[in-house]
TrEMBL record:
The keyword Lyase does not apply. Its main location: membrane. Residues 1-221 form the ABC transporter domain. It comes from Liquorilactobacillus oeni DSM 19972. One of its GO terms (cellular component) is plasma membrane. One of its GO terms (biological process) is oligopeptide export from mitochondrion. This is ABC transporter. It is a multi-pass membrane protein. GO terms for molecular function: ABC-type oligopeptide transporter activity; ATP binding; ATP hydrolysis activity. It holds the Pfam family ABC_tran. SMART domains: AAA (SM00382). Coiled coil: none annotated. It is found in: Cell membrane. InterPro entries: AAA+_ATPase (IPR003593), ABC_transporter-like_ATP-bd (IPR003439), ABC_transporter-like_CS (IPR017871), P-loop_NTPase (IPR027417), Type_1_exporter (IPR039421).
Length: 231
């Protein structure tokens, strides 16, 4: 059986430190790009290179060390906070965890990080879990960040705080953001608009708005929905 490819003719280059945003409707292919970048799925044709090196020539372990993935739902497993941050990497010292926690203003963490995370008990809010996942990301100091709808589950006040910390974490790192809310990626260096696995528009927010195409339509729709909610 011949399956149709999910992604077709997608091509982009992220310069060091740039932010690339992937936008598009459901099933347009945003997560698929992330999945092949992380090598959660293998891909057929095409090439993905990091600093000129084909990602299939690097071990999966090494590849995933280069990339910090921050997902919508931060997952905590049974154990203390420190082990949740370390993820079995014993080389990460308590001091390093403390510094990373301070960096993202997870200030209550240093005192608490030997306390247990008990699955299914609401010990930590979505915002706190997100902060713990930021600490986890920071201790590994990845050159590349992937943010998949990283702030979707938060209340407005927590979101403002998380966005502020994210901005700090992104500094100096090449970032790929999957965003549903276009207001959060207006400052991206490049925006790729995906539709049915293809890259149908590519540019900055201002360029895409002036093109009055698909992005413009999505932006207009979201802005009008937001203003209705405010009324
Ligand atoms: N493991 C898979 N095997 C085959 N097809 C898949 C697989 N995962 C996703 N797809 C298909 O690939 C296409 C793109 O899906 P993808 O999840 O990348 O979209 P998306 O833009 O991330 O959507 P959403 O906004 O809902 O997360 C869809 O048609 C989907 O059905």
């Amino acid at each position: 059986m011949l399956l149709a490819p999910v992604l077709k003719r997608i091509s982009f280059t992220a310069e060091p430190g740039q932010t690339i945003a992937l936008v598009g409707h459901t099933d347009s292919g945003k997560s698929s790009i992330i999945n092949i970048l992380m090598r959660f799925y293998e891909f057929g044709k095409g090439k993905i290179r990091i600093d000129g090196q084909d990602i299939r020539e690097i071990s999966i372990k090494e590849l995933r060390k280069k990339i910090g993935l921050v997902l919508q739902d931060s997952f905590l497993f049974y154990g203390d906070i420190a082990s949740n941050v370390r993820m079995f990497d014993k080389r990460i010292s308590d001091e390093k965890i403390k510094q990373a926690a301070e960096f993202v203003h997870a200030t209550e963490l240093p005192q608490k990080y030997h306390s247990q995370v008990i699955e299914r008990r609401a010990t930590y809010s979505a915002g706190q879990k997100q902060l713990i996942s930021f600490v986890r990301t920071i201790v590994n100091d990845p050159k590349i960040l992937i943010l998949d709808e990283a702030t979707a589950n938060l209340d407005t006040q927590t979101e403002v705080l998380i966005q502020k910390e994210l901005k700090k974490i992104r500094r100096g790192r090449t970032t790929i953001v999957v965003a549903h809310r276009l207001s959060t990626i207006k400052d991206a260096d490049q925006i790729l608009v995906l539709d049915n696995g293809q890259n149908v528009e590519h540019g900055t927010h201002a360029q895409l708005i002036s093109q009055e195409g698909k992005y413009f339509e999505m932006y207009r729709l979201q802005s009008s929905m937001n203003s209705k909610v405010m009324q």
